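Hey, can you fold this?
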Amino acid sequence: MTSPDKTAESKDRFFEEIAALAERMIAEHGREFAMGAFVLAARFIAEKKDFGDARSERTN
């Protein structure tokens, strides 16, 4: 099992990645796009959908 310290470090790394991604998205496409993309991702997680479904929905 993962120790609490390792878990916290892992979560911190993910938050750093999310922050960097958000900054790039905002710089290229604006705040509304970044927020919408993260909300959509949260919805897919909440609904337990496969992220591959998002790609097929986008192309149809």
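Oh, and this one too while you're at it.
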Amino acid sequence: MNEQKNKRRSEEISEKYFEFLDRHIDDVLSARTTDLMALKQIASELAISHKHLIDSIQHEFGKHPGYFYDFKIIEKTKEILLKADISIAAIARKFTYDPSNFSKFFKSRTGQTPGSFRRENKT
């Protein structure tokens, strides 16, 4: 019974985390907030400890919550790169990154720079 309750709680935390990430990234891109939050801040917003957030996400999905945070940023970046005609530096600034650090971040997670991704995938 207790294990089942913990599983439900873990699922609930995961669901709230992903909903929060979507809203937060949208808020950053829409300039309703000026910075990407750290995981500790997100955990606080969800009214749980940082450790509980990590444990819950890892239990449900086998990966650290930061992996999914980065994944959502990369997915949104790819969408912008393909749909909008704005510079990569402007996209980086939208995500509150320094442009050179953003290119390194993107390449470390996708294997290519934002510019090469755009050139290879834009139709």
